[in-house]
Amino acid sequence: MKRILGVALGILTAIGGFVDIGDLVTNAVVGSRFGLSLIWVVGVGVAGICIFANMSGRVAAASGRATFEVIRERLGPRAGLANLSASFFINLMTVTAELGGIALALQLATSVHYLLLIPVAVVAVWLVIWRVKFSIMENVTGLLGLALIVFVVALFLLKPDWGSLAGQALAPAVPDEETGAAYWYFAIALFGAAMTPYEVFFFSSGAVEEGWTIKDLIQSRINVLVGFPLGGLLSVAIAACAAVVLLPAGIAVTSISQVILPVAEGAGKLGLAFVLVGLVAATFGAALETTLSSGYTLAQFFGWSWGKFRRPAQAARFHLSMIICLLIGVAVLSTGVDPVLITEYSVVFSAVALPLTYLPILIVANDPQYMGGHVNGRGVNVLAMIYLVVILAASLAAIPLMIVTGAGS
Amino acid sequence: MILGDLLGTPVFDDDGVRLGRVADARFVVDGVPPQLMADARLLGLVVSPHSWSSFLGYERNSLTQPWPLPALLRWRHSGSFLVMWADIAMIGDGSVRLRRGYTAYSPALDGDGQE
What we know:
The complex is a heterodimer.
Chain A: H1 2-18, H2 21-34, H3 39-63, H4 67-110, H5 114-131, H6 134-145, H7 150-157, H8 162-170, H9 180-195, H10 197-209, H11 217-249, H12 256-302, H13 316-334, H14 339-364, H15 368-371, H16 378-405
Helix pairs in contact in A: 1-6, 1-11, 2-9, 2-11, 2-12, 2-14, 3-9, 3-10, 3-11, 3-14, 4-5, 4-10, 4-12, 4-13, 4-14, 5-12, 5-13, 6-12, 7-11, 7-12, 9-14, 9-16, 10-12, 11-12, 12-13, 14-16
Chain B: H1 3-6, E1 10-12, E2 18-29, E3 40-48, H2 69-76, E4 81-84, E5 88-91, E6 96-98
Parallel strand pairs in B: 1-6
Antiparallel strand pairs in B: 1-2, 2-3, 3-4, 5-6
């Protein structure tokens, strides 16, 4: 019974923890401009993150090493440092976006200007990282994040023309008023949002934090293979809500209030209350994960002791580096730059950096000296290599498309 | 000197012909352990004609997955060789010169590279 509860809890937190500010914004923007014609990318991205999160979890359980320790060992100091610089920069951008997201979500709930709420958000994030146990932190934010299911509820209450939605999804075409370049630019953004590298840094480090062994792999596999796709369905619902309400009205999403507008229309005040809770939980949970990921990547590269399972005094540099990251995030946000804009850029830059994370994981997952008998099977390798080609193509095309489309505008 | 500074240094033979760059340093752990583990002893340098990027672990012949990565990485390092420390005439500032009549060994490691 306890085991079933554990599995259920794991799945629920994986669903609730899947969506972050990147998924929220990108899916809503895409839904409001392209309908469901890009929704296949969410499927591709979710399958990809399932494969690689699972692999990184297995590497962590079999070798006791988290992802950036693996990157440092396999790539060596020089290429490893280049990798760290890129990954860390993008992660910092995501931290900033998530902090801004918390403040924007709180602004919707309180009508206080978001810049005044940023200090509240940052102190709360830091306190949780400093004091709260890893498993409690994960479970609470994950479960509250489930409130975002209201997007699914709202979609049904909006009584959309299901046939037309299915048509957009199943026979994707570039809408008349959009260009092909913009279509593919947002395809890469959606892919980057679904596969953000921090998820793998966090997932594998979390496996070490929670002391996984090979025996725990079945449960983690269920969490990933059931939880992530259901979390992906939330992303689809966000896009579908935008496609039903905002696309016909000609509103292209540029703010968080527009993201939740369809929920207010479909599910009323109660729906609004749920979506606000879900929004705060999702961005707060992701802010914790990205901030921790900054600390994890730095500490794992430089060989500092790390982890929430250690007392802060025993992992001083790990905690100090996270405080500095949070302060940098605050400094960037206090210039008044739009957090939604930071989010849009962060998901595209995530796509650029994808191969840096996923190639080393794939190589080490095939190395018997790390993995013993738990190296990748042939089927996983075939899928992973296909994804590596897709990832590489997305990574190379991202910047040129960004320039051609003027960042999708 | 720091070993990291040596990586990427151009390597020349006795006649001044450029052979490639230092891609790796090969160590062996043998001898009588002074305490817990024997000290690592520098066996020689791996010289690669095309690239001094890492072999990413594929110098071990036992690694064959995932296709086609091993083949690609080995192709990138084709023509690379291992020279023993005794065959190195001089490690200068920004260049390494080998002795006349040096022996080029295969850089591959059989099995898991443990022996």
